[in-house]
# Entry
Amino acid sequence: MEKKPKIDLKELANKAGKATVDAAQSVGKTAVSVAGKTKELTEKSQQAILGAIDQNGNGEVDIEDVIIMGLKVPGIRIDRAQFLQNEFKTKLPQDVIDDAITFNPLHANIPSELIEKIADEVIKYERNCVSGISAALGMPGGVAMAATIPADIAQYYGYMLRATQKLMYLYGFPAIDLDEKDQTFDSETMNTLIICLGVMYGVAGANNALKAMAKALATGVEKQLLRQALTKGTIYPIVKSVAKWFGVKMTKQVFAGFFKKAIPVVGGVVGGGLTFVSFKPCCDKLRATLKNTMLSNPDYCPSKEDDDLILNDAVIDVAFTSEEPSDDESTAK
# Structure
């Protein structure tokens, strides 16, 4: 009978242990390599996105960037006269429409019920547009996705800005100057839109600032004085506060939310908090403020906060000094 070779269990165990250790080390090295490459890819993606979003060239993601991007999307800028004509042409006599265009719907005595109905249609229409934003947003893809994310952000805020213009015109505000000057938008225009977006997101102070602006326009405050209030006077600190709030929010959206998960919505996928669901509440907040100002409500009673910002046609306080040096100070340096 053939003798079976003797099995050295100790040696076998040692070999098995060594193989296990080798395999574990190999897996560990692979995991470290994959993690390193993933981190590198994410960093490249973020830098690519920052480069595409940073429209004002300050090296940050802020509210000015998305406003500039949004207004450059085709079809976002609204002609006030044409919009009011189109909305009222089948509902009101032409002389009433002309009055609304020359002055505003309140001056033309257009019923508030009709304004509310049109506002509902505006919000519904723009919300449906948001539902069609590219389903690519929020999905994996690394650097290849960097080009699509800024496009989706521009579309989302573009529709929000389009709704903002329409609602402002329905509730009595004059035309917003959206003409570019040397590829930049007027500071008054930019700050007005920042205030409106602040109202949409419930940022402290934005609500009262918008009502104060409406009161100034309704009581005949000179355009130059209102401009000063918006760019370096009593309203400007609120503009800065809103912009700061958005800066923090948007940095988190772009550099955290977009890379974490995809959020399914009607018609597509939107990441980083830009959702179909959140669009209507934002528009409703802006409408709630716009419908109760001196430009839209004949029974409007200004609050103390409104009076503290702008008092009728009195000279607006422009003593507030921004953090940026003046032209003289810049020259001196």
Summary: DSSP finds 13 helices and two strands in the chain. Residues 134-146, 257-273, 311-333 have pLDDT under 50 and may be disordered. The beta strands are 264-265, 268-269. The chain has two domains: 23-52, 61-332.
